[in-house]
Structure formats: C-alpha cells, structure tokens
C-alpha cells in the first residue's frame, strides 16, 4: 500500500473508499455497455436520482456517526425514523415536520438519559427503546399501514426538484454542513472526540461528558427523524417497517468511511464517501439484476474486504 | 451456600425472576403444571436459548457476535436438506449441519484475530454472507425432516423411547421417573452443561474471561489470547448451529428469513443481559443466558393466557425489556468514585 502509506489513519480509508466508488461506477458502466450498449451510470440524471434515494441513508448515517464517534451505537434508528414519519403524517398540515422532529428530540433525550446517566450499554438500551417505539406505533396505527398522507411541504422537500436537482439532496447537504460544522468548529465537536477517545480522561479535563453523550444521541435521533419525515414525503405516506432498511447500511457507511467503531476517530467526509459507496454498490447490483442472496454475500464481502484493505488495526492489545 | 449466591448475584437474580415468572404462568394457565404445556414451552425456547448461549461467549470477551441469528438460519436451511433418509444419513446430515455452523464461527474468529477487525463490524458483514448463503440453499421456505425424528425430539422422554423402541417402548420401570421430562429440555441442558462447563474450566475458557476483564493484562500474563478469541467465535458458531438444527427438526422445514435472523440476534443480546452477563465482558456465563432466554420466552407466553390487546403486546414486551435492563443500572448508585463509571 505504498501510495496510501503517507496518508494519516483518518484519510487513508477515505481515499481507498473514494477509489472504490470510481471502480464501482466504471464496472457498472462497462457492464451496461457490454449488455445493453448504453451507459446510464454516467448520465447526470441517473446519478442525481441515486443520490436522491441515497439522501435518506446519508442523513441517518450522519447522525449515527456522531454516536459512533463516542464509541456508542444507536440501534433505535429504524423505529425513530418510522415513528417520526407516522406522527408527522398523523398531525399533517404545517405542524407535520415540527411534530416529526419533536419525536426525534424526545427519543434522543431518552436514549441519552439511559446511556449517560443510568450507564446502561447503548447497544441494549437503544434496542429496548426501539422495541418500545415499535410497540407504541403498532398500538397507534392498529398494526396496519396508516391511511394518513404526507403534507405538501414534506412532499416538496423529498420529491421535488429545484433547477433539476432534487431538493432532498439539498436537505442532505444542509444536514452534512451542520454535522461537519459541529464536529470540526465547535466545542461540542471537540468534546465528542475527546469523550469518545477516553471518557475518564475527558471527564477529568472538565468536559461534562454526560451532557455530551445526551447531545450526541439527540443529534442522531433528530437525523433519523429528519430522514423519516423525508422518506414519508418521498413515498407520500408512512408505513410499518419503513426504517428497517437503514440501520445496518448506516453503520456500514460510517465504518467504511474510516470512523473507528470504538470511537474517538473519524472524519465526516469519510461517512459521506461511505454512503455514496453503498448507494452506488446497491444501484450497480440492481442494474445487474443480482438476486437478493448474492447481494447479501457481496455486501458482506465488500465490508470485510474494504476493512482488510484499510490496514490491520495496530492497537489490539494496547 | 450463601457465599455461592452472593458471588453469583446476577445469575441468582435471573434464576429467581425466571422461576417466579414461570410458576406464575403455570398457576394462571388453565392447564398449568401439565406435561403438554411444559413440552410446548420447552420446544419454543430451544432455538433462542441456543442462540443466546452462542452470543454469551463473544460477549464475555467484551465483543459481540451480530451473526449468530444468521448462522442459525444458515444451519436451519442446511438441515432442512440433509436431515432425512436412513438413520445413518440423518446422523451424517446433523453432523454436517453442525460442522458448517462451527466452520462459519471459526471464520469469524479468524477474521477478528488475523484481520484485526472489530468483532461487531466483522460479524455484521459475515452475518450478511451467512444470510446470502442461506437464501441460495433455500430460496423459498420448505424442506423435509424425518417425521419420527420430529416427533421423538419435540415430545416427552416417553414418546422418544416409544418411537425408537427403547426401554420396552418407554415402559421400563427405571425410566418411569423421567418419562414426563421434555426431550428438548434434556437436549438443551446436556449440550449446554456438557459443552460450556468443560470449556469454561480449560485455559482457553479462562482466557475468554480474562480478555473480557483486561485484554492487555491477559496478553502480558502469557495467556493464549488469539486461541481464546478464535475458540470463542467457533463455539458461538457451534451453539448457533445447534439452534438452527433444532429449529429445522421442530418445524420440519428451513426458512431463510432475514428479519427472523435479525430478531434472533437482537433477542440473543437481550437474553444475555437478562441472564446476568455484562456487555463489557468478563462477568457472566452461558448458563445464565439459558435462563435469560427462558425469561424472554415466558414473558411472551403470558400474552396467550392474559387477555391483553394483541396490539399492545409489542409495547409491553419492549417496556419489560427496557425495565429489566434498567435494573442493572442500580449499580451506578453504589459506585462511590465516579471515575469507575467510565471504562
């Protein structure tokens, strides 16, 4: 790995992942050229459409990254997303989006309280919150797809285009700017990295680590609920299990982007590249009409393979 | 005795909770304390109990295996093809099934140790691979399992003996004290105690605990850290495939259900925590997880006899899980030095 050896541990995965994105696009283009004689993957319209679909995953991954930087994980993303979408469509009208985000805020505060103050491992607490949310939504909707529809503003944000570019991509860009800004330019960002690296040391340095953890979970839940509101706007309604397809890809995107799963290390640009990688990988596989079984296998092999290429982790027995 | 309980406070608590829930269930059940109900309970608990035991070993090491549900599903699909035909073929089929699951666990261990990838993310990826393989082996639910075998291992000891003509068709005098014990319970306890307790007493097993407490200290003390890690994931694969094999025999079919695999993985984590093991590693054991899985199952049994609105069931299950894990938070009230809260 000579050309990458000079890059720092944060940047090397990002460079490798970016190269892999190019490889995926080239491979897809060669495939379509040889089978159909066209190159849809290189057309701007197709790329924009893929990014529009990818923006929901991108927003989830942005929030997930903040939590993973702390060395925690948020398994409540699927039903936070669904609950926000369902409550937003239930309320409807101008209050639809604030309601969705309020759901996210509440869930984030609850998660943060359990992890930071009760000291329950995030893995199990957010899992419990996820099933409680699922229970609440099943009780709320009666177990069926709710008949409510998305408000016009939600539809505009998710499905419309400004100057040919989907609005959802602007929303994703906005969320990205906010998260990247928080991580690099604010005290909270520094505190997140410090807490993720060594909570005890951060605490002794005067960082209120419990507040930092609560803030991170609130950010994650707000991102998940934003994605839920958008996804409800995109499909014009909310439905059971709409968030299930986002949890594992979001974690995978964050990790493929070079964020360390135990916290303390990672750049937002990496998460962005990781999301694009997963979105394009999915689209190439669907162009090739790959059966679900092989998609799962390729998915797993890519994650393991990429992480092996990133270089073996040094500090396994520090 | 008092010393023993104090040392295993979490396990004793889990066992007490299970017994209270279980006895309460049978007291409320119209046909409670009968063999039929007991057998049914045991049958429905075996798969999750095996998967929970599988999850325990990586957790004791401070890791996590997100592929246990997927490996169980893979074993389930393999078994649905192989466990049929003559007795020799069936036994071979079972061995192949267990060997495949164990080999998958070994692969997990090798990736974690030599690839130096964090267990949680490595098993997330290999779990996807296992589900993919399961889908190739069995694209749609189905399969065939020997009917006698299904009957024999999902009922009481008497039916087992009668099916295979053992001990005078189950009427032998020495067998009478045992005739009403469910076979699934015996399988679970024999494999659980027979594999876990000897493993725990080996150097490798002790090292798994040591890694969970302090990995660098374990390494400095010259313990076989790599071997223990590989063994832990291999054993997890073995237990998960036991669950898959039993599920195949019980349902007479294989089903590569992605969401079912995910649910088993997540429930296994919950069962491990309920059984008194610490997710930070070093504390707990597979027998505790057996009890934890029992608690999870009994809670869902209650919905059958109490007339609770089915729409509220997921909510109550979630709340019970949340409250049960929050009980573990009581230790934070005992901590005198706040620094001990941070790992």
TrEMBL record, chain A:
Asked if Transmembrane is a keyword of the record, the answer is yes
Q: Which residues form a coiled coil?
A: none
GO molecular function (one) = transmembrane transporter activity
* Cellular localisation: Cell membrane
Q: Does the keyword Transmembrane helix apply?
A: yes
Please indicate which superkingdom the organism of origin belongs to. Answer: Bacteria
User: Which keywords describe this protein according to UniProt?
Assistant: Cell membrane, Membrane, Transmembrane, Transmembrane helix
TM regions (residue ranges):
14-33, 53-75, 95-117, 162-183, 212-236, 242-262, 269-287, 293-311
> By its UniProt entry, which CDD domains does this protein fall under?
TM_PBP1_transp_AraH_like
Query: Which InterPro entries does the entry mention?
Result: ABC_transp_permease
Q: How does it sit in the membrane?
A: Multi-pass membrane protein
What cellular component GO annotations does this protein have?
plasma membrane
Q: Name one Pfam family in it.
A: BPD_transp_2
PANTHER family in alphabetical order: ABC TRANSPORTER PERMEASE PROTEIN YPHD-RELATED-RELATED (PTHR32196)
User: What protein does this entry describe?
Assistant: Monosaccharide ABC transporter membrane protein (CUT2 family)
Q: Which organism is it from?
A: Silicimonas algicola
Q: Upper taxonomic classification of the species?
A: Bacteria, Pseudomonadati, Pseudomonadota, Alphaproteobacteria, Rhodobacterales
Automatic annotation (TrEMBL), chain B:
Q: Where is this protein found?
A: Cell membrane
GO MF term set:
transmembrane transporter activity
Question: Tell me, what's a Pfam family for it?
Answer: BPD_transp_2
Domain of life of the native organism: Bacteria
- InterPro entries attached to this UniProt entry: ABC_transp_permease
What membrane topology was assigned to this protein in its record?
Multi-pass membrane protein
Main localization of the protein described in the UniProt heading: membrane
Q: Does the keyword Magnesium apply?
A: no
Keywords recorded for this protein, A-Z? Cell membrane, Membrane, Transmembrane, Transmembrane helix
Q: Quick check: keyword Zinc in the entry?
A: no
The portions of this protein that span the membrane are 12-28, 48-79, 91-114, 120-137, 179-199, 230-249, 261-280, 311-333
- The entry's protein name is Monosaccharide ABC transporter membrane protein (CUT2 family)
Q: Which organism is it from?
A: Silicimonas algicola
């Amino acid at each position: 790995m000579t050309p990458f050896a000079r890059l720092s541990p944060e940047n090397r995965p990002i460079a490798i992942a970016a190269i892999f994105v190019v490889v995926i696009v080239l491979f897809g283009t060669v495939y379509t050229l040889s089978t159909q004689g066209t190159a849809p993957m290189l057309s701007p319209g197709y790329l924009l459409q893929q990014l529009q679909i990818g923006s929901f995953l991108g927003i989830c991954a942005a929030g997930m990254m903040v939590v993973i930087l702390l060395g925690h994980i948020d398994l409540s993303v699927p039903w936070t997303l669904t609950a926000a979408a369902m409550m937003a469509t239930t309320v409807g009208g101008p209050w639809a989006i604030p309601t969705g985000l309020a759901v996210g805020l509440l869930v984030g505060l609850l998660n943060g309280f359990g992890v930071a103050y009760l000291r329950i491992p995030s893995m199990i607490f957010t899992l419990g919150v996820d099933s409680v949310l699922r229970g609440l939504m099943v009780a709320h909707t009666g177990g069926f797809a709710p008949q409510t529809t998305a408000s016009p503003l939600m539809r505009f944000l998710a499905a419309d285009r400004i100057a040919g570019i989907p609005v959802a991509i602007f929303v994703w860009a906005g969320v990205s700017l906010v998260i990247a800004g928080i991580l690099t330019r604010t005290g909270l960002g520094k505190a997140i990295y410090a807490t993720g690296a060594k909570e005890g040391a951060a605490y002794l340095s005067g960082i209120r680590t419990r507040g930092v953890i609560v803030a991170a979970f609130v950010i994650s839940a707000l991102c998940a609920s934003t994605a839920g509101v958008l996804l409800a706007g995109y499909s014009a309604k909310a439905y059971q299990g709409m968030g299930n397809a986002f949890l594992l890809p979001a974690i995978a995107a964050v990790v493929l982007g070079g964020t360390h799963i135990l916290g303390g290390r990672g750049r937002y640009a990496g998460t962005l590249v990781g999301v694009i990688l997963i979105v394009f990988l999915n689209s190439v596989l669907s162009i090739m009409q790959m059966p679900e079984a092989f998609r799962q296998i390729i998915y797993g092999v890519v994650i393991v393979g990429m992480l092996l290429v990133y270089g073996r982790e040094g500090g396994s027995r520090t | 005795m008092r010393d023993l309980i104090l040392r295993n406070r979490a396990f004793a608590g889990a066992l007490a909770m299970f017994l209270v829930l279980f006895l309460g269930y049978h007291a409320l059940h119209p046909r409670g304390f009968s063999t039929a109900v007991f057998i049914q309970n045991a049958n429905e608990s075996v798969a999750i109990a095996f998967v929970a035991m599988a999850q325990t070993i990586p957790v004791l090491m401070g890791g996590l295996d997100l592929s246990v549900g997927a490996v169980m599903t893979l074993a389930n699909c393999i078994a649905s093809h192989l466990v049929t035909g003559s007795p020799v073929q069936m036994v071979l089929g079972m061995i192949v099934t267990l060997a495949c699951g164990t080999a998958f666990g070994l692969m997990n261990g090798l990736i974690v140790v030599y690839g130096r990838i964090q267990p949680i993310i490595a098993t997330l990826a290999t779990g996807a691979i296992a589900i993919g393989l399961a889908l190739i082996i069995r694209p749609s639910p189905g399969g065939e399992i020997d009917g006698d075998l299904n009957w024999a291992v999902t009922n009481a000891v008497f039916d087992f003996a009668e099916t295979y003509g053992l001990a005078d068709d189950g009427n032998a005098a020495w067998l009478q004290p045992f005739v009403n014990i469910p076979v699934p319970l015996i399988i679970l306890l024999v494999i659980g105690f027979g594999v876990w307790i000897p493993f725990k007493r080996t150097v490798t097993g002790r090292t798994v605990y040591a890694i969970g407490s302090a990995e660098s200290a374990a390494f400095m003390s010259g313990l076989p850290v790599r071997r223990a890690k590989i063994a832990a994931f291999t054993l997890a694969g073995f237990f998960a495939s036991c669950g898959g094999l039993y599920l195949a025999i019980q349902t007479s079919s294989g089903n590569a259900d992605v969401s079912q695999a995910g649910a088993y993985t997540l429930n296994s984590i919950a069962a491990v925590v309920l059984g008194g093991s610490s997710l930070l590693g070093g504390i707990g054991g597979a027998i505790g997880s057996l009890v934890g899985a029992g608690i999870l199952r009994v809670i869902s049994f209650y919905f059958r006899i109490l007339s609770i609105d089915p729409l509220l069931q997921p909510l109550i299950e979630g709340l019970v899980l949340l409250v049960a894990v929050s009980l573990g938070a009581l230790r934070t009230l005992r901590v005198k030095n706040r620094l001990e809260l941070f790992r």
